[in-house]
Amino acid sequence: MSVPLLEVEGLTVTFPTARGPVDVVRGISFSLGRERLGIVGESGSGKSMTGRSILRLIRPPGHVSAGRLVFDGIDLLALSERRMRALRGARISMVMQDPKFSLNPVMTVGEQIAEALLTHAKLPRRALKARVLSMLEAVRINDPERVAGLYPHEVSGGMGQRVMIAMMLIPEPDLLIADEPTSALDVSVQAQVLDIIDDLVTGKGMGLILISHDLNLVARYCDRILVMNGGEIVEECRASELHLARHPYTRGLLAAMPRMDEDRDVLPVLDRGAWTTGAGT
Amino acid sequence: MSATAIHLENLSISYGKTPVVHDVAFSVAEGESFALVGESGSGKSTILRAISGLAPEWTGAIAILGKPRGHAPDRDFAKVCQMVFQDPYGSLHPRKTVDDCLAEPLAIHGIGGRDARVRDMLAAVGLDQRFRFRFPHQLSGGQRQRVAIARALMLSPRVLLLDEPTSALDVSVQAEILNLLKKLRREQGLTYLMVTHNLPVVSFLCDRLAVMRHGRVVEIADVSALKTGRLADPYSRELYAASGGALQPA
Ligand SMILES: Nc1ncnc2c1ncn2[C@@H]1O[C@H](COP(=O)(O)OP(=O)(O)O)[C@@H](O)[C@H]1O
Ligand SMILES: Nc1ncnc2c1ncn2[C@@H]1O[C@H](COP(=O)(O)OP(=O)(O)O)[C@@H](O)[C@H]1O
Ligand SMILES: [Mg+2]
Ligand SMILES: [Mg+2]
Q1: What is the CATH number of the domain that holds A245?
Q2: Domain membership flag for residue A236
Q3: B89: pLDDT strictly greater than 80
Q4: What is the rounded CA–CA span in Å between residue B86 and residue A143?
Q5: Which residues of B touch A215 (CB under 8 A)?
Q6: Complex confidence, ipTM
Q7: Is residue A269 assigned to a domain?
Q8: If interface means Cβ-Cβ distance under 8 Å, which residues of chain B face chain A?
Q9: Which residues are within 8 A (CB) of B8 and not within 5 positions of it... i.e. 6 or more apart?
Q10: Does the pLDDT at position A276 exceed 80?
Q11: Residue A154 scores a pLDDT above 70
Q12: pLDDT number for residue A157
């Protein structure tokens, strides 16, 4: 096997609380190639903290420790903050849930996408503009000239999220971390946005970490799935084999979801006592 | 044939000068569970708001259990029809205990026996009595939604308007609330008009659905058409496919 793009070993994220330090991510390990990895679990299971740790975006008093955190041969734990900043965006990008909080309200869409590229590369103006327009086209915006001139409040949620994706992918990073990228969007728009992410990631041979609470969605758009519960990875499986999941938590989540052809009178509810070790909640 | 619980005819609704719902008509039978689905901004919540008196600028006709609804606020209306919102955090007063919150509708309507009624209702929605004197921030999301449902049921209404009641919840908690709604409907013969964007939730809890787009109803179908992938309207079918359904010929 080739060298993985990302290696995570013994990742722990700790927060101080009134009752002492709490590990919200508890020594998890996984690796990622140029593939699509899904991280699923219920709210509070530690998915976002895991994603943010990779970019070293956990703010104090949160504390990250790990045995190994290596991206493309680079030891992220040993990197200076200055070099980490250069890596963020250029080589590892992150798309978050709500574009409204991530876009700058006083800059046009086009200016923001251009800036995302200029931070990492020098380009003449004309070439820059062409890159921005072709990136907007790549996220399936039909009239890129017009949209480039709009401000964030002038675009819909789905278009805002496509603009975010354009910003994150224009520097051509090797790894995209998408944290609930479509949870704020309509079902029909969700599929469009995920198809766009999928095309770009697959087309450029990037790695993708797709974080979501939605098992079906992750099963549809990923190759491999990690299931998190209480800061731990309780199950790892191929996306196509999610229905064969073994862990009672994963099985419980799958069973609790209503199905399109639902005929059960009662939905089974999780029996959390069935596997919790007593730690955490 | 049972009586009609909700009857809407030529219903058009505006906010100020902006019309947002156009010419909607459907009836929900007593004891039926009816879903409103469709893209965000299509006017689903606005229909519930007009029925409950929160969006007064409408034309057409609204009748609940055979009684036409006027445009003015209507106190008696609360006794037959109540609304439950998506975000119980926003709909519960942060400085009122569960007990205050449940007893309040009874106090407003001058109804006695509050203590026993609060206790019974907590039991009906599956909340332990120890939650009775807690504040909303001391409850989980699922527990808060149980309180919101209990509050809506305090006056023994016949009709519940449910606006995305489980959209903010994790799937395991959603399952608990959906089971609760199904049980309450069966036990109390309630009628539901529920807004949701989740088609499988419709399959679990509803008998029929209306699909909305741009302020209009584009299709009304039996839930069997949803379960078997045989919705007819192109937009309904798009929604169905985007939700992971496998389309069949209509
Ligand atoms: N600043 C903080 N202090 C203490 N605990 C925190 C803080 N931020 C997040 N947490 C806790 O960390 C856990 C994991 O959070 P997160 O990774 O955001 O979960 P997820 O993304 O899976 O919903 C949660 O239980 C959350 O309450
Ligand atoms: N209080 C309000 N004032 C003005 N416009 C509103 C108000 N509430 C909703 N709208 C608008 O009415 C339309 C329908 O909204 P809504 O009924 O909330 O849609 P849905 O519930 O289907 O997502 C939207 O365009 C929305 O922006
Ligand atoms: Mg998260
Ligand atoms: Mg709504």
Answers
A1: 3.40.50.300
A2: yes
A3: no
A4: 36
A5: 171
A6: 0.91
A7: yes
A8: 39-40, 170-172, 174-176, 178-179, 182, 197-201, 203-204, 226-229, 238-245
A9: B24, B25, B26, B27, B47, B51, B60, B61, B62
A10: no
A11: yes
A12: 83
Q: Is B101 helix (H, G, I), strand (E, B) or coil?
A: helix
Cβ separation of A253 and B197 shorter than 8 Å?
no
The nearest CA of chain B is from the CA of A190 a distance in Å of: 8
Q: Point out which residues pair with B27 in neighbouring strands.
A: B7
How many whole angstroms from A176 Cα to the centroid of ligand 1? 21
Mention every residue, 6+ apart, whose C-beta is less than 8 A from residue A84: A56, A76
Residue A146 lies in a domain: no
Q: Is residue A69 part of a domain?
A: yes
How many angstroms away from the CA of B176 is the closest CA of chain A? 6
B204 torsion bin: left (phi>0), alpha (psi -120 to 50), beta (else): alpha
Return the closest-CA partner of residue A178 out of A131, A215, A210: A210
> Which among A187, A216, A258 has the least Cβ separation from residue B197?
A187
Angle at Cα B64 formed by Cα B224 and Cα B108, nearest 5°?
Answer: 125
In terms of Cα–Cα distance, which of A21, A67, A13 is closest to A45? A13
Check pLDDT > 60 for residue A55: yes
Q: Where are the domains of chain B?
A: 4-80+157-242
Residue bearing the CA closest to ligand 1, atom 3: A15
Tell me if chain B has a CB within 8 Å of the CB of A259. yes
Output the pTM of the full model. 0.90
Kindly report the nearest CA distance between residue A78 and chain B, in angstroms: 37
Best mean pLDDT range from A164-168, B93-97, B168-172, B226-230:
B226-230
The count of C-alpha atoms lying within 13 angstroms of the C-alpha of B144, restricted to the half-sphere facing its C-beta, is 22
What pLDDT does B88 receive?
64
CATH number for B4-80+157-242: choose from 3.40.50.300, 2.30.300.10, 3.40.1050.10, 3.40.50.80. 3.40.50.300
Ligand 1 neighbourhood includes A46 CB (under 6 angstroms): yes
Domain that holds residue A17: 1-81+214-281
Q: How many domains does chain A have?
A: 1
Ligand 1 centroid vs A24 CA: distance in angstroms? 6
Q: What is the pLDDT of residue A279?
A: 42
**Partner B contacted by A251 (CB < 8 A):** no
Which residue's CA is the nearest one to ligand 2's atom 25? B41
